[in-house]
Design goal:
Blueprint: H1 3-9, E1 16-17, H2 23-34, E2 46-50, H3 53-59, E3 75-81, E4 88-89, E5 92-93, H4 94-112, E6 116-120, H5 125-132, E7 139-149, H6 161-168
Antiparallel strand pairs: 1-7, 2-3, 3-7, 4-5, 6-7
Helix pairs in contact: 1-4, 2-4
């Protein structure tokens, strides 16, 4: 799969079905993230790959309302970093940017492997960190839910009607004119 095709196919689907997650898949995802650029090559990102069914069941308790669909994930990847592990220039904390880029590389690799990799913000950070033994000084940035897209999303009882509607087609993307500026920003 070419990069452009992976970018076009990448979607944050919520209708997931179980898929076998092997150590080889985890290694491929991790290796893709490792290739991401970072400030002074600091590579501040960290990932906990949760594939154990008992641990995945416990992860349900950290999800906020509306994210019940994550129960169907075959893998949840906790993405975290801390500002001391990367550049901070004029109060710009690059660990967030750099870790975001590594997460994007990982998501594109998941797409290439035929998987859905859906990052979320709707979780209790403290509870998730405690469950995954992530030290307090780290920022748990996102949880990426991985599975195979289910073709039977219309019958999925976990999804709300609004979530089912989103499954039908890619959500609208902004026109370039709405976010691309040449030479200077103009409102």
């Amino acid at each position: 799969m070419e990069l452009d095709e992976a970018m076009q196919k990448r979607r944050a689907f919520r209708a997931l079905e179980e898929v076998e997650i092997t150590d080889e898949i985890i290694e491929k995802l991790a290796k893709a993230a490792r290739l991401s650029p970072s400030c002074f090559n600091n590579q501040p990102w960290n990932f906990v790959f949760v594939k154990d069914k008992k641990k995945l069941d416990k992860m349900e308790n950290v999800m906020m309302q509306g994210n019940e669909w994550t129960q169907e994930a075959s893998l949840i990847i906790a993405v975290f970093s801390k500002k001391e592990d990367d550049c901070e220039v004029q109060e710009r904390e690059y660990h967030l940017f750099d870790t975001g880029m590594a997460s994007a590389f990982l998501q594109l690799k998941a797409t290439e492997l035929g998987l859905v990799a859906h990052p979320i913000a709707g979780f209790d950070e403290d509870d998730a960190k405690e469950l995954l033994n992530i030290p307090e000084e780290y920022r748990l940035i996102t949880l990426i839910n991985v599975g195979k897209h289910s073709d039977e999303w219309e019958d999925n009882e976990i999804l709300s009607e609004e979530q089912k509607e989103i499954e039908k087609q890619r959500p609208e993307r902004k026109n370039l004119e709405e976010f691309v500026y040449k030479d200077k920003f103009e409102e």
